[in-house]
Specification:
Strand content: 15-25%
Structural class: alpha+beta
Distance between the termini: 172 Å
Number of strands: 8
Radius of gyration: 53 Å
Largest sheet: 3 strands, antiparallel
Amino acid sequence: MPGTILALFLFALVVVTIGLGVRIVPQGSKHVVQRLGKYHSALSPGLNLIIPYIDTVAYKVTTKDIVLDIPSQEVITRDNAVIIANALAYINIVAPEKAVYGVENYVYAIQSLVQTSLRSIVGEMALDDALSSRDSIKAKLKAAISDDIADWGIALKTVEIQDIKPSPTMQHAMEEQAAAERARRATVTRAEGDKSAAILQADGRLEASRRDAEAQVVLAEASQTAIRKVAEATQTGELPVVYLLGEKYIEAMRNIANSANSKLVILPADLPAAVRGLISGLPAGPR
């Protein structure tokens, strides 16, 4: 009976020992092995053998890409504007032993490093540049932290600026500033429109007055020519004037008769005498 128990014990011990010595590492992972408390090796995916009771798997590290969410933080730009920015960092562990022994918590360390670098980069930029230069910030950020995390056996594949926007207080101030600027432009545009309209109206009046004056000159010259031709035809001095004034008189009477307010127009029977009466009432001109 004691022999049987001992055999079972030895069998169990062998099974446990074999179980401790055989390690199967899944694809996408690496296991860090310590020998007597000291780093010994990193097991690659597949079947691996270690020394039972001496070697132990201390860390299991993924070799897949890891996405780190960089929390939002307030960043002050060069012109003292407050903006809120966050990012995503894509990392890959290429040397597991450095990642687990080089830094206490590589996730927290990288998040802190990205936040610090982001504040430093944005702090050197003006507000407008920071809001419109994501690619530039991304490139500077990647260059700033790649070398640092390489010492931890971690490669930075890329970093993306997920969101960058003014703080609520700053956004409200920017909206008020934009509204004031639009109101100012509207006022200037309206004033320029009024000015242009006034200038055009003045130009119109000036052109109309100039043309009226020219028309009066043309009419006067036409009257002068008509008087001269009538005088030459009749060889008298008074008759041409009487003729033209009579013509004007008749035309004026016709206009009065055609107006809506006139119902009856009476013409003098002796029109030439009436015209002569008008002429005699005029002051004597130079002879």
